[in-house]
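Q: We require from you a single protein entry containing the residue sequence and its fold in token form, and nothing else.
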Amino acid sequence: MNIRPSILILGGALLVAVLALVAANQTAEPLSDSLAQKARAVIASEAAGSVTADFRSAQGWPSRHAMLTPKGDVAETTRARIARAVAAIPGVGGVHWTDGTMLADPGEAPMESLRCQDDVAAILGARTIRFEESSADLAAGGTELLDEVAAALRPCFGARIAITGHTDSSGDELANRELSLQRATTVKRALVARGIPEQSLQTRGLGSSLPVSGLDPADPANRRIEFRVVAKVQVAPTPIDTPGPR
């Protein structure tokens, strides 16, 4: 039986690709393990126990890029210090956080002092963005409160704003995490409709994992939305942001 040369060439190319992938994985595994070990040492010297570092992709492949996960609510100054220390390790290709933020430029000042975040905290200090029970639909009064939140966030143009959903501990935790993410997404869409650039907003849902300090985890007051300015970003102006000719 005659085999066409093109089939032989294709088969050979596939074989070479597979062998190269296997060899690369065998080389990458010890490198990612070494980087992870060095990162753990760096983090321990900066703020032991506050952050974990993983050098694997979402698919589980070894990587030179660090994925950092905060344990609890880690201050922005601490996050920046840890991220820069990990980025300085020889061989590290980049630093990301599991909540979606990236390492800020070394010259940037911490963003947590921005007035817009304080204004939002003041608005939500006495009131809460409420939802229908076991739903991601806003409850009565929620739209008016979001009008105020959007107005307070507009001075943050050019910053990335994290929207985090929380629940109380009632019900299944997996369902709670999904519900908290859906609620954060509802708030994001509402803010975009009020003129906040979509690319500056990121969402995550933590379920009941971070109850309000001093409250019983089952207390309904743990059902809340929190906002935090986490990093500066380049946001492309939209037609709404850019005045047209007179």
